[in-house]
Amino acid sequence: MKRTSDIELSLVIPVLNEMETLHTLDEAVHQALLDFEGNWEVIYIDDGSKDGSLSVLADLVEADKEHVRVVSFRRNFGQTAAIAAGIDHASGEIIVTLDADMQNDPADIPMMVAKLNEGYDVVSGYRKDRKDTFITRTIPSRVANWLISQVTGVHLHDYGCTLKAYRREVLLNIRLYGEMHRFIPVYAHAYGARITEVLVKHHPRKFGKTKYGLERTFKVILDLFTVKFLLSYSAKPIYLFGGTGILLMLLSGLVLFYLLVRRVFFSISVLASPLFQMSAMFFILGFQSILMGLIAELLVRTYHESQKKSTYTILKVMNIETDKNIQGD
User: Which of residues 307 and 58 earns the better pLDDT score?
Assistant: First the structure.
C-alpha cells in the first residue's frame, strides 16, 4: 500500500542472502544521499533470504525509521517480483533500483537523478568496466545486450545493470513477470519514454556468491520472444499469425504448382515424392495459423475492454477538460 507523502526519491533494493553487505550498503546509501535536497526512502525487499538478512533489515529499520522500509516475501519469488513489489510500495516520484551486493555503487545515485532531471524518463547504468568473470558473465552479457538491442530497437550497452532511475509515471503501465525487469527500458520506450545511458562504477563482489549463471542467458533469450511479441503484435496479433499463415499457404500453392508442371510436362506422378504431403501440411498449418490469429484478436479485445486499457498513452493535454474515466495517461 502506497503512503501519501511528499517523498521525492525511492530506492528499491532486492535482497537475497546478503547479510554481510547490508550494513555497509545502508551506510553507503545514507552517505550518497546526505546532500539530497528532498525527502527520500530506501525500500529493501527480502526475497526469501535464509541467512539472517531479514534480521539485519529489521535492525536497519529500527535505526532509521524515517528513511528505511522493508518488504519481506514468504519465499523466494525472484528479482523481478522483488523489484515489482518495491515499485508498488514506493512513494517517490523518482524510483531508483540497485542490487544489494555492493557491486552497484550508491554514490552514482545523485548523478543519475540529476541526469533524469535534465528531461529524461529513464536513466540506465552502463557498467563499462565490469568486475565479473569474463567468460561466464561478461561475454554472455554482451551477447544478450546486443541481441536485445537489435530485436527491440532500444540500443543500450547494459540491460543487465540493475542500477537504473525512472520517473514514476513511466512505470505505471508496466507489469513485471518472470525475468522481465531487465526489459523495463524497452517497455518504457514503447510508451514514449525518453531514455539515456550513463557510465556507472562497478565493484567486485566481496561477500557471498553470485545468483546469476550461464542459464540466465537462455532465460533472457526466451523472454525476448515474449517482449517482442507484446511490443510489436499485442494490439494486432493477426499480423503475426495471419502473416505466417499466408506465407505457409503461398508456399503450399507453389509446391502444388511445381508438382502440376512436373505431371503435365514430364509425366511424373504427383504422389511419387513427399512434396505433395509437405504441401498439404503447409496448407493446414497456414490455415490453423490464421485461425489462431483470429482467436488472439478476440482475446486482445477482451483484455483491453475488460480492463479499460487504452491502446495509446498521453503525454499531456492543453485546454481540454479530461474525463477521469478516460485511460491512457
Answer: 58
How far is residue 305 CA from its own chain's centroid?
Answer: 24
Report which of 182, 183, 206, 200 is spatially closest to residue 128, judged by C-alpha positions.
200
d(CA 93, CA 185): 17
The DSSP string of 65-108 is TTTEEEEE-SS---HHHHHHHHHHH---SEEEE--SSS-B-GGG
Residue whose grid cell is 566481496: 206
**pLDDT tens column, 35-76:** 998 999 999 999 999 989 999 999 999 999 999 999 999 999
DSSP 3-state of 11:
strand
What is the chain's alpha carbon radius of gyration, rounded to the nearest angstrom?
25
SS3 263: helix
- Nearest-5° angle of CA 298, CA 299, CA 303? 120
∠ CA 21-24-30, nearest 5°, is 135
**Cell reading at 127:** 557498467
Compute the distance between CA of residue 205 and CA of residue 104 in angstroms, rounded to an integer: 10
Helix (H, G, I), strand (E, B) or coil at 310: coil
Predicted structure pTM score = 0.79
* Dist. CA 82–CA 176, nearest whole Å: 10
How many Cα atoms sit within 13 Å of 127 on the Cβ side? 22
